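Hi R.,

Here's the chain you asked about this morning:
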Amino acid sequence: MHPTPSSNAYKILVVDDDPDIVELLEYNLRKEGYIVASAPDGRKALEVAPQFGPDIILLDVMMPHLDGIDTCRQLRAMARFKETYIIFLTARAEEFSEVAAFDAGADDFIAKPIKPRALMSRLAAYVRRDHETSAVSETIEINGLTIDRTGFAVFQEGRKISLPKKEFELLAFLAASPHKVFGREELLQNIWGNDVFVLARTVDVHVRKVREKVGDHHIQTIKGVGYKFNAD
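And here is the predicted structure, written out as tokens:
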């Protein structure tokens, strides 16, 4: 179900230096009920985002002044945007670009030329997933970690650890089934969903980033198979 114009409608910030793409996206997004703002480059996006408070940011990679990768990193460094969905829009379909995008903290990666109907379906999936997640009130306490699935919060010995949404969802999913081994494709399907096309290598990037924040011992690599949460 798509959002409708109201105080609860999702806010989307479109960041792209191509005015035709911005116009196309703004038209289609507003038609679906989203509240939209735009910025022509990364530098301007960093000014607009704190004022606008977007729920989702559509971010081009190749832009003047400040590219999308650096913009994403700077946004993720701000506390209020650690859990904001950031989706890259780019004509650069090489694998290294996708890995760089996720490494910078992106949630998704969409190649140009953009197909509006496919993009709207993708965004609706994110909104739907948010609503489904908000209905879950569950806390996992395991191996020194407290994972609050309602508040998207992780605590280790009383210290709060901030994780972007996809990293949090990955950790919570693995912790919910300790000792069970999940393959990369299974993790992609459960965390990113069928509506999102990403590389299996994306899982490795997110596992590495989670390990950097919560410690290496929580998520164990099972060579040739995938990952499991270590409850020992």
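One quick note: The helical segments are 19-31, 42-52, 68-76, 95-103, 116-134, 165-175, 184-192, 201-214.

Cheers,
M.
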